[in-house]
Specification:
With 200 residues, this protein is an alpha+beta fold. The chain contains five helices and eleven strands. Strands 1, 2, 3, 5, 6, 9 and 11 form a seven-stranded antiparallel β-sheet that branches. It has a four-stranded antiparallel β-sheet with strand order 4-10-7-8, with no helix packed on it.
Length: 200
């Protein structure tokens, strides 16, 4: 499952993060890491789709005109055997779409590469098993933050089922009549499956 989240960071937050990155040595790396982590952890769809247990520190990458990255797979244990297991990857775009050309995120989940355009504050979550790359930037500069997530639920098929159940329950609450019996039943199924599938 590929999940696209829009406007995860407000424009002023994106500009602040990027201004810090554009300095030769960012003055507050821990603060930057916390800012992007807080953005995704505050998004209910991210929580539903990923069921995060732990996250790696974000890596910030800059792609100038002429730069690209061919799609490649991720290490299962990107921080070594004592670190987290990569279940999902996260890419947060930090450059406004009108400030660069090209630079689309390339994701290949086994059926060919899918091209996903960016936009400041937008975020893409993908299975760690997907090969990830960046199309050539032809104008301007693209900044992105990338990191890995270890999920409470290791199996991506199970995470997709949990997401569908949770999203359906939330839809009924928002567009239906609030906490109906149907919505509560879906949440109960969601919680029972999470209890069944969540690892220690």
């Amino acid at each position: 499952m590929i999940l696209t989240l829009s406007n995860l960071l407000e424009p002023e937050d994106v500009a602040s993060v990027r201004a810090n990155l554009e300095r030769a040595q960012p003055s507050d790396a821990a603060g930057l890491h916390a800012r992007v982590h807080e953005a995704v952890l505050g998004d209910p769809l991210f929580l539903l789709g990923v069921q995060p247990r732990r996250m790696s520190a974000p890596a910030f990458a800059r792609y100038d005109a002429g730069m690209s990255m061919p799609p490649r797979g991720a290490a299962a244990l990107p921080e070594g055997p004592q670190g987290l297991r990569a279940d999902a990857g996260v890419v947060l775009f930090l450059s406004a779409a009108d400030t660069y050309d090209g630079g689309a995120l390339l994701l290949d989940t086994g059926w060919g590469a899918e091209s996903i355009p960016g936009g400041a504050g937008n975020c893409v979550v993908h299975p760690a098993s997907a090969r990830r790359g960046v199309a050539p930037v032809t104008r301007g500069t693209l900044w992105v933050a990338c990191w890995w997530v270890q999920s409470l639920v290791p199996d991506p098929r199970h995470r997709e089922i949990l997401y569908d159940l949770g999203w359906s329950a939330r839809w009924l609450e928002v567009f239906g009549q609030g906490e109906t019996a149907e919505a509560l039943s879906l949440w109960q199924c969601h919680e029972n499956l999470l209890r069944l599938w969540a690892g220690p």
